Amino acid sequence: MAHDEHPLDEVAGAVEKVAKAADKAAEAAKVVDAMVDDATQAIDDAVDELTGVPTDDGHIEHFTHDGATLIAERRGDEASPRTVVLVHGIGMGRKVFADLVRHLEDDALVVFLDLPGYGEAPEPPRTPTMERLGDLVAAYLRHLGRGPVILLGHSMGTQVVTETTVRHPDTVARLVLVAPTVDGDHRQALRQLVRLGRDLLGESTRVLLLGTREYLRAGPNLRRKMRAMLVHRPEHSYPRVAVPALVIRGELDVVVPQPWTDEVVAALPDATAFVVEGHHHETLIRDAGPAARELRRWLRETDAR
């Protein structure tokens, strides 16, 4: 007479079936993840191609300091005595500087950064203040070992590079502020978003494509990142900048109005102002040529002092 299967054997058989099903599900998930990664990379490559961003990376370096990691890409002339370092604004990343890099890389080493939680850099465990980001950039500049650099920031990046300059003056030879934020009379998130939306109405396809991609990448904790930008008071630091500064604004920039730019220029001890005619807030993405030409002219002028 046949004996009934022991209950424990039935349980073991069921567990084995569940385990096999879980393995199959895990394999399927890996396939789906790979397909998503491939699709994401294809979209990324298409955006790069449409907007003129180089699809071949320069020298890439990950740098970690005080728990936060930035990514630095280097292009240009390593033998040049001149080093230009570029720091992006909120929601952006290093790839938005592609056009400016093309204008500068023939006779300088150009280093452009993804700040923590932007571009391809990992999210930090906590959202850094502008001061902490300034410290991180300074730590990287010392690691880079090229001596004092020409440090350029765009939008929120101007707040970061200002803090680097005043807190670590040995790392910066000259300072460039493009579309400096945040207008002292309008430091509310909703007002800034409305202004940015109005500014984008007149922008090019290149700006819209690159901007959308970078904002999606910066999505996690974007609200906290915005708050860190808005609570910062750059006007307290401007008078302490001890190097020549160039301040660039797009003529049609809604985010950075002319009266605020005038305040920034007046607060800096040694400042030169330049307006890019017909350009908006993202002047360096739309066409970096006018800003690059003025930067070269200003560098020659300050070299001759």
Can you describe what's shown?
This protein folds into two domains: 1-51; 55-303, Alpha/Beta hydrolase fold, catalytic domain (Rossmann fold, 3-Layer(aba) Sandwich), CATH 3.40.50. Mean pLDDT is 83; it is low at 32-44. With 305 residues, the protein is an alpha/beta fold. The termini are far apart. The chain has helices spanning 7-51, 98-104, 130-144, 156-167, 189-200, 205-217, 222-231, 258-267, 283-286, 289-303; strands at residues 59-65, 68-76, 83-87, 109-114, 149-154, 172-178, 245-250, 271-276. It is globular, with a radius of gyration of 24 Å. A hairpin with a 2-residue loop joins strand 1 and strand 2 (68-76). Strands 1-2-4-3-5-6-7-8 form an eight-stranded mixed sheet, sandwiched between helices. Helix 1 (7-51) packs antiparallel against helix 6 (205-217) and helix 3 crosses helix 4 (156-167). The longest helix is centred in the first third of the chain and has 45 residues, at 7-51. It has ten helices and eight strands.
Key traits:
single chain, 305 residues, alpha/beta, Rossmann fold, 2 domains, 8-stranded mixed sheet, 10 helices, 8 strands
- Encode the helix/strand succession as letters: HEEEHEHEHEHHHEHEHH
Range of strand content: 15-25%
The CATH architecture assignment of the largest domain turns out to be 3-Layer(aba) Sandwich
How many structural domains in the coordinates? 2
The CATH superfamily of the largest domain is identified as Alpha/Beta hydrolase fold, catalytic domain
What is the helix fraction of residues, given as a range? 40-55%
* Tally of strands: 8
- Please tell me what the overall shape is: globular
The span between the termini is 107 Å
For the largest beta-sheet, the strand count, sense and barrel status come to: 8 strands, mixed
CATH class of the largest domain: Alpha Beta
The CATH topology of the largest domain turns out to be: Rossmann fold
